[in-house]
Design a protein that fits this description.
The complex is a heterotetramer, with 2 copies of chain A (about 350 residues) and 2 copies of chain B (about 250 residues). Chain A has 2 domains: about 5-230, P-loop containing nucleotide triphosphate hydrolases (Rossmann fold, 3-Layer(aba) Sandwich); about 240-350, Beta Barrel (OB fold (Dihydrolipoamide Acetyltransferase, E2P)). In chain A, about 25% of the residues lie in helices and about 35% in strands. Chain A is built from 9 helices and 20 strands. In chain A, the strands form 4 sheets. Chain A has a 6-stranded mixed β-sheet, with helices on both faces. Chain A has a 5-stranded antiparallel β-sheet with strand order 13-12-11-14-20. In chain A, strands 15-19-16-17-18 form a 5-stranded antiparallel β-sheet, with no helix packed on it. Chain B is built from 13 helices and no strands. In chain B, helix 10 (about 185-200) runs antiparallel to helix 13 (about 230-250). The two termini of chain B are about 30 Å apart. The chains are: A alpha+beta (about 350), B mainly alpha (about 250). Chains A, D: GO terms for molecular function: ABC-type transporter activity; ATP binding; ATP hydrolysis activity.
Chain lengths: ~350, ~250, ~250, ~350
């Protein structure tokens, strides 16, 4: 177990006109589960592969604990990888797959058997130890891949989208299993995903990446409550935060005739073109007289537990798509116009040009 | 359930099928089955059979021993000139066999590029069984290498990467992971190489000649026999046709 | 970045690469480049070149016209015996060329299965240019059919299904959807068939013979020339080697 | 526009030991969007393909309007299919793809151009008409596939998982677009998906299938509120309904020491082994003294808008996994034991053996 430190680590693929990862600075604490999240092509996998030794580091350094691993081959880094497609060895039994690292380390067969059995017990794989991977379900394969990594007792787990080959229900189930297991084992873990729900639910902290650069490294709830810029605001949360163009004038934010309530910090800082962000669950439906933002309802989605109202708010010729989460049933219908408002503490104000957060 | 196939497609398809199937059917029908085994007992036939078995067996061994590492190098190692080497390896696939024979003569013949060197070392190749094996290996190895390289590429580097991250050296990874995973490609490649070797005619007759006992393999014997004893030629052809059918079955 | 490739793999791979590349290099080095064009002017060479061009061209046309419908039938229509027909079509792929020649003689020769029928209709095949084209088509068509069938299968039936659901007949679907989508396979198959035809030697010499002007294609001429005029044989081989390189480039 | 009627339509694949669809009876109303949903292999796609004429109907009949289409080839059924992978013709421009059906129908080029332009306008594809499909994004391709179907003006749209090739965000966006478009056009639509969220949000009605049989055909909210059996109860809703084994005794349902409040109908009908279902959002956290069901918390997932508490309730030796949705933040922590209860109208009671619903 150890910390992981990236010091301006750069990866520039030969022949590319710019680096995939220009230079990442990131400290991961001992025992922490750090999630790297971002859209495809943002450099999150490349960053993980640099840590694992599968990609060259062109500049900068990477440390595991106090040890500089920048130029070590993968086999000497004391890490274990779990891949999206698991890459279980189809010609080996589950037990041999899980014991592979111990065999490489020349651990005695008895000791190997003991440690494999131990891990299989934790993962509920005991009865499958003699099977070949192809005789397992997707979820079981995923656990074997986890087991193969656990048995090594590495200093760091590197997980590259380990849930993306599972179906939706299995994914929900497995992500809680992995989070629990990681917390129990206390092994420092770097987890890569493109799915913000996984990032939110699993990470002790989450690093949001875009175009090779870190945008924000924070706890899931801080990312949700205080996104530092427009990208993070739009990326975290589903359905996505309503982001609406507005104009700032003497500490007032206007969307057409609707005056957005903003916090004092934002009121002081904002100027010219701003973007106002409100999460779907932060809207309140008010009556027309209360002067809310008018929204013409185009679709109402009833999920049973919640409802989402999709509509457009026609302001200054540019229609804004608005999503409102409603608790009750059958309260809003297609074609109606509803009026919504919110409270200052739920409004995120951003500078439209720089994307930077202006609210507190 | 998309509807009946139109005649404008069915008619030419039938002609094509007839053209491909008819000669095979004719060969089966016209083979003198009553004297089949008897004909196989003659000395030149036995010699040709023996030589074909030895040459094709040696070819497959050469392919496995030398071709597997080459396939691995092409599939897994990023070196300068890899694209060119991969293209060069594929050339014998489309090279006319006679031209392959001429190229082998030019390189290894008595007056060839390295022929004199070999002769100084006491090795004479042309018109020996060794020449037959080299000709067969030259034309068969590309099939083997491409099949194994394809298998190694399709199983993908991720298996190797996992092994490396679990502490395995490159050689251990090759033995314990790459090789077992490429086994279907190795088997298919061996069968393909064996098939190519079994039917080799052009390169062999050009480079090694057609001498009973040393370089006359089955195809050469069939070619030689057809004018004088067509019935025997058909019997011998039938054996190779059966081998082809077995090969095709093995490839599925 | 997985580490250096171990010598135990690099050494045999190098030997294999040398075996495959050296003969080609030798051929290029030993070709009499100074008299290259001059040698091509002689009558038998020109005749062989012309015949090779005609035969391989006719072969490709036959493959496209007859083989495309056959590939479609195998890829898209579910009929009894499809599996057997598909296997039968593949047989000439692994059949030794000399055996293919013997099978063609047995079917279409003077005393063959349908040979007398053809003769009664005024057609004599053996030892004519027609025989050359048939031999080439027999050995080349399987490459074409499998390539096109593969392309049609991989593009998948869903495109056809959509066309049907949008009101297209089966023939319209073939012309407007299946054929354009299979075009890469058709091109690749044509190049493969052309390559196979260009190098054909065993089946041709067995079924059609080796007569200058009517059945002596380039490989037969090279074989004939090698003993008497090795320099000319190398020049002619060089032409086919260049063609092979062009073919490989076209396939990529 | 027309109704669609399946009358005991059966599909038995040659060589299979039982029919994939033993005999389906289903009436779809004119202009309705009917979703067929179920796990993979439940026969939903086969049912759709029978309607489209891509699978033979072995027994029974299928009508579109009053017309018996059972034995018609696909091209004569006046339907249009949209596939999962779109199957756009890569060698044709977007305009030619969209106009394909009109070309087949020998519509004049001017008329064709007009109708394609019209559909492109609706779908926001006007500027892409000259492009080839490969130059489009996933979402745009999806719309071209929709456009190709719309241009035909068919009586029925048949859609086979048209969103499953899109990423999560795009999917949310596109499903509202399709639902809106279908409502505007008013074309009867049969929509197949394995995703219950799509089914809930898009369907006028939803037909839940399992092993080739219809389980329940109802509106989304009725499926959510009154699932007719255990399968539907577990399938609809995410995270899934808590299904807990209990014993019925004189109108009382017991889970260990916890007495589940049940409605009078269920109280009268239930007997012996029953299964009690409670949706995650229907639990209330109560104090230990109030006699709720004790749940030991293993994982807390904070999604920002909601939180989910995962835990186990150890009853009679068999641990039940319990999921509770919580509104507040930071109220429940890993390792704690919380007590939860609910109200009779939120409790679904099922017969454990037959799976049938016993509640009202």
């Amino acid at each position: 177990m150890a910390t992981v430190t990236f010091k301006k680590a750069q990866r520039w693929f030969p022949g590319a006109d710019k680096p995939t990862v220009p230079g990442i600075d990131l400290e991961i604490r001992d025992g922490e589960l750090m999630v790297l999240v971002g859209p495809s092509g943002c450099g999150k996998s490349t960053t993980l592969r640099m840590l694992a030794g599968l990609e060259e580091v062109n500049e900068g350094k990477i440390f595991i604990g106090d040890k500089d691993v920048t130029d070590l081959p993968p086999k000497d880094r004391d890490i274990a990888m779990v891949f999206q497609n698991y890459a279980l060895y189809p010609h080996m039994s589950v037990a041999d797959n899980m014991g592979f690292a111990l065999k490489m380390a020349k651990v005695s067969p008895e000791e190997r058997k003991r440690r494999v059995a131990e891990a299989a017990e934790i993962l509920g794989l005991t009865e499958f130890l003699d099977r070949k991977p192809k005789a397992l379900s997707g979820g079981q394969r995923q656990r074997v891949a986890m087991g193969r990594a656990i048995v090594r007792s590495p200093q760091v787990f590197c997980m590259d989208e380990p849930l993306s080959n599972l179906d939706a229900k299995m994914r929900v189930h497995t992500r809680t299993d992995i989070a629990k297991l990681q917390a129990d084992l206390g092994v420092t873990t770097v987890y890569v995903t493109h799915d913000q729900v996984e990032a939110m639910t699993m990470g002790d902290r989450v690093a949001v990446m875009k175009d090779g650069d870190l945008q924000q490294v924070d706890t899931p709830l801080n990312l949700y409550d205080k996104p530092v810029n427009l990208f993070v605001a739009g990326f975290i949360g589903s359905p996505q935060m309503n982001l609406i163009k507005a104009t700032a004038n003497n500490g007032q934010a206007q969307i057409g005739h609707y005056q957005v309530p903003v916090d004092p910090t934002a009121a002081k800082r904002m100027e010219g073109n701003i973007t106002v962000g409100v999460r779907p669950e932060s809207w309140r439906i008010v009556s027309a007289e209360d002067g809310g933002l008018p929204v013409k309802v185009t679709v109402v989605e009833e999920l049973g537990s919640d409802g989402f109202v999709y509509g457009t708010s026609d302001v200054e010729g540019t229609p804004n798509h608005i999503i409102v989460r409603v608790a009750g049933r059958d309260t809003v219908h297609k074609g109606e116009t509803i009026y919504v408002t919110t409270d200052p503490q739920n409004v995120h104000v951003f500078d439209t040009d720089t994307g930077a957060r202006l609210s507190e | 359930t998309l509807g009946r196939p139109p005649a404008v497609l069915v008619v030419p398809a039938t002609i094509a099928a007839a053209l491909l199937v008819l000669p095979l059917v004719a060969l089966v029908l016209d083979t003198p089955w009553s004297t089949f085994l008897e004909q196989l007992g003659s000395e030149p036939v036995l010699e040709a059979l023996r030589l074909t078995a030895v040459a094709s067996g040696a070819t497959v061994v050469a392919c496995i021993v030398l071709g597997t590492p080459l396939a691995w190098l092409l599939a897994r190692v990023d070196f300068r000139g890899r694209a060119i080497l991969r293209a060069a390896v594929a050339v014998p696939l489309v090279l006319p066999p006679v031209v392959a024979g001429v190229a082998l003569v030019t390189a290894l013949g008595r007056n060839g590029l390295v022929g004199p060197l070999l002769r100084d070392g006491g090795i004479t190749l042309p018109y020996t069984t060794g020449a037959v094996v080299i000709a067969h290996t030259f034309v068969s190895m590309p099939f083997y290498v491409l099949s194994v390289e394809g298998a190694m590429r399709s199983s993908g580097e991720r298996f190797d990467v996992v092994a490396a991250s679990l502490g395995a050296t490159r050689w251990t990874t090759f033995r314990r992971v790459t090789l077992p995973l490429a086994m279907p490609g190795i088997l298919a490649g061996s069968v393909l190489a064996w098939a190519r070797s079994l039917g080799e005619f052009g390169a062999t007759i050009t480079f090694a000649g057609n001498y009973p006992g040393t370089t006359q393999t089955m195809p050469s014997l069939i070619y030689t026999t057809l004018q004088g004893d067509p019935a025997l030629a058909r019997t011998l052809s039938m054996i190779l046709l059966l081998a082809s059918v077995v090969i095709l079955a093995a490839l599925r």
